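Per reviewer request, we include the raw input and output of the structure prediction for the construct analysed in the revised manuscript.
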Amino acid sequence: MTREEIHSAMVDILNDIVEDVDWGSLEMEENLKGKLESMDFLDVIMELRKQYGVEVPEADYPKFATMKGCVDYLEPFLSSK
């Protein structure tokens, strides 16, 4: 997957979990905190595991603070898919 495809996949997951936010229009550096409740965040993590086989350890959760952080984190796992 390219960075753009990873971004699109994240937007799709976020849209499925929290429908009242326009996730596609977020700036890459915009903080996701405040837009995602903690249970919603855990749902995102579980979807990443379910859909892409990516295991995200709890210690790495802070890396998902922005969309850029999400894409940066996921790129090494998903670039070969």
